[in-house]
Amino acid sequence: MQLLLDYIPIIVFILAYFYKDIFFATGVLMVVMPIVLFVQWLITKKLNRIYAASTALVLILGGFTLAFRNPTFLYWKPTVLNWAIAIAFFGSQWIGEKTFVQRMLGSAAELGREQWIRLNQIWVVFFLFVGSINLYVAYNFSEAFWVKFKLFGMLGITLVFVIIQSVWLTLAAQKNESASNDSEA
User: Fold this and answer.
1) What is the pLDDT of residues 107-141, one digit of tens each?
2) HEC string for 88-135
3) pTM score, two decimals?
4) For the chain: N or C, fewer Cβ within 10 A?
5) Residue 176: C-alpha distances to residues 98, 111, 123, 179 (Å)
6) In this model, does residue 179 exceed pLDDT 90?
7) Best CA proximity match to 128, nearest among 90, 95, 156, 101
């Protein structure tokens, strides 16, 4: 359900873009994202911080896009968000008892502190990569290609990352379990 809600604004943005243009789509996105954020809050009674930050960036950078009639501001939104998340994940290695990845996935696997830090660093690299690839596409391909990339390309990259991470988590957990069983024997 959460994933569906997260992708509603992107799908609406793409439909609005192909119906009219980037400026119309930006305005539609600026209306839809706060509505989805409110619906998420109604359903969960929790504020999704990443989605809230994304909404704030859409309102700010979308506002600049419309005010200056320049889509470059909107092109930067995924990069700014991904790089900010990378910084937060990186900082979580020293702030608090657990990294962000461990807080999110701690119930999925039993890992040692160093393994959680390594996985957290992998996420940092992932977010830096996604932010960078967004800029590469924005500045080297057509606007229409960038719009499609936002949905299909970034979703595809994320799915591949999640699969790789799941395999890594499974192997690391099995290795820890095997080592624990060997030490008990």
Assistant:
1) 777 888 898 999 999 999 999 999 999 999 999 99
2) HHHHCCCCCCCCHHHHHHCCCCCCCHHHHHHHHHHHHHHHHHHHHHHH
3) 0.90
4) C
5) 18, 7, 21, 5
6) no
7) 90
